[in-house]
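Now for a specimen:

…
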Amino acid sequence: MNTRIFGLSVSALVALAVALAAGWFLLGALGAGTVAVLVLALYYAIPAASFNFLFGSLGVFSLAQAVFVAVGAYTDVYLYNVYGVSPWLSLLIAPVFAGIIALPIALASVRAGTGAVLTALITLIISEAIPPILIAIKPLGGAIGLYVKTKANPSFWDMQFGSGVSFARMFLVLNVLIIVFMMWWNRSRFGFFVRAIRDSPDASAAVGIPTARMRILTFVIAAALAAPAGVVFAQYSLETTADLFLGGTALFEVIVIALVGGAARAWGSVVGAVVIVYVANAMSNAANGAPGIGPLTFAAVFVVIAVAMPRGLSGTWALLADRRRRAAGGTLASPPAPAAEPEARPVDDHAHRATEHDVASG
């Protein structure tokens, strides 16, 4: 019997727990350079997972996920510098602010209709409009941004660690929590509702599914998932600027990682991020840090994956797993052939005439 907890199989939860424990200890054994690469990869994986959550649920492209990461970063640094709010508490506050900011964007998207192109255009406009707005707000540091106030002897609650291992582990935990949530969502009635809306909006509305509310809810949740990444990365870099979180390549890199990882599996963004960031770092080192190598590598890997595996890494894995299941099941056994009917024995003509004669004479 396949035991489930909150709709999730125990085997899947155990596998995630084992992966979390293995990753936790592995990060402590790696060198500082490798850890720095993994910090960046696991950071990018979170907004990419947010993108895939929205795309997998509703089939729409949101080009504003980097904005919600920036909301998390600015929320954290501002509350910490001005009011002394612990970054650990900002991990809970930032998703609320991101959801509030996402609400009017979601309403505009719903009013524009179900087209993926219109949603992409709306979110692209938002992502391009936010940086100058942030620069114009003086309490948020203007063009310079905000720098985290450091302490000589920071406590655990200040989230100022001397090693990148602690931040890598935090990003790892956040990614695992997001994977668990996405797995639960896919098996919940909410997941069934949004997939029905994605596949047939009119039919979904006809059977009573609140299509507008579900689309808005999904958009707000996607924004909330992205915000904690900004909180942790702001503490890691000790600064937050519009260029750091909303620069020319930030949005591009998030989308590429999301598409390379694929939306077929909840872990797709993590695998895609590790692969692309590691390859980009290796190519940059080989080119002695020449400018532009990183974005060029992102683009090259994306083109290769798009040609070789159009469904992304997780989508290709899902396709191969489905083929293995079909092959293991074998072909259906053909039904047994019906029993042959007994052959009719030839009638003895002489006996038949004798019987007729006896009947006639009787």
